[in-house]
């Protein structure tokens, strides 16, 4: 009996597509850094980079927009892993031109490894701009409107195309801001007068930001890329200022200064980058970057000084000035980083050559009727060349990860300040010709040990040494008049400040992160007020050493539709004066709180409440401050089948985001306070179109991971590298 033959037929079937949706946490805390994923938050809508930093955990922005991290000044700001050459007001104005719609995340790196540049005593703040990594053709458009005292507008578009060989990307953003600030300044002179100034400043900023580039994936080992990004902004302000001047013994007002000045200018920045990456399956990896960028700016300020009698009705004298301040900065750099497997660990080494050239001109004209007399003129040219090399090694032993690195940096800086200042008493020009030439080499070791035998309870111990160099503006000895009774002067003798930091970090169950850090800062330099006769001036000096102990605790919490992240940063700081002309012996215990709560109200609706509080503190070792805080609320609604998002928020709901500070360390009493349009209503619309699927081959998965590493400044973790 034969068995009948059996035939199996294939059934036509198709596996349905599976959609995997992931969402980054709003805040990620790692051993060496805290990451704020800006694009996922509601309350960040319609703001700029500087305001985002004001509300970031552990970050303080003072009255002059100087940035501190965990109580330490000297923060180095990076954009897409590359350091900016700007500082002070130039950096603040640049950050104000970067809109939140351009920003993907902000990384607060408190313990960088030797792979990073040594600049930045307090650490590094890396602002990562958006770059689409999705395959196919896709893009998005957005538009926003804010209202405080005045209306503000922003809009943008992003386009991307990616296949197996190429990734083309680009975006453009437009922003138009009109912001009102207030400043109240009371000071006494070393002679016999007091000055009570009240100012309302209307700041204007219209900016165009862009980014474009292409990546070419030659094969599984080699990737080439070019990129350009930039920002063009037109800036200006109108300042309404009234100063009551009193005779101190009687405290009776004897004259009134009205100085309603205005300013118009521009700030242009463009950066070009060419990069190459090699990586093979045996662990060899080479990254090379060549960069050129320029920052050009100019400012035209009109400043009348009208002095009236005590009633403010009878004009006693008038002085009208016009100042012109063009500036140009050129930055060139080449960087190479190489890594390979070595002795059961990972060995990395590399180097960087950087050259910065700046040209700055200051011209002031005194308006004498129809005539215009140039009474102040200064040209300041500054060049800085930094050559650096580093080696870094990490290895995982049984239950212990060890990392050690050493970076060497040689700095050669040259400055030449030449000009004149007209002396009205003698009727002659006082010539100024000052040279600055420095050449010094420093070593910057770093090390970390992480005990990770039990991944649920990890301990890390770290050490690093860092530097903060004076900016070229702070080194220029020329005197810049701010108004009739105030001027600013640079200090060519200003020295770098150095920091040695030690840290202990515990990560419990991948959630609760606790860090204890101690830092000693030598030759702390800061902006201080001084006086000469009836005039006050501000300058920078190395005034103190600083010892600071900080404790940081953070933890995320998730339960069904509710999520919470909180961060508590507590620090004790002591400044001990070392300058004979400036007495500093202050200590402060301070803390700041940061919390963000998210509520899933429905499948398409999400609510958010975020806020921060900063206890009384010390700004830049000079000003004692009062408490500062703010709370924001917002809601997000998905529409058009999830392709579009509408976000609405109200910032500083309780209207508490105002600052106040005092200083009496130079023999004069200074009391200052101010605020801005911190309470605003903001609404933003974002629409996404094109392909939203992410298809990755092995080659393209590694290239995407490299893009993430590249924008993190080269990757290697400093304090306590975590095992995956």
Q: Which structural traits does this protein have?
A:
globular; six-stranded mixed sheet; 30-stranded mixed sheet; 39 strands; single chain; mainly beta; 4 helices; 724 residues
What does this structure look like?
The chain is mostly beta strands and 724 residues long. 5% of the residues lie in helices and 66% in strands. The chain is built from 4 helices and 39 strands. It has a 30-stranded mixed sheet that branches. It has a 6-stranded mixed sheet with strand order 1-2-8-9-6-7, with no helix packed on it. Strands 3-4-5 form a 3-stranded antiparallel sheet. Strand 31 (585-600) and strand 32 form a beta hairpin. It is globular and about 80 Å long. The N and C termini lie far apart (63 Å).
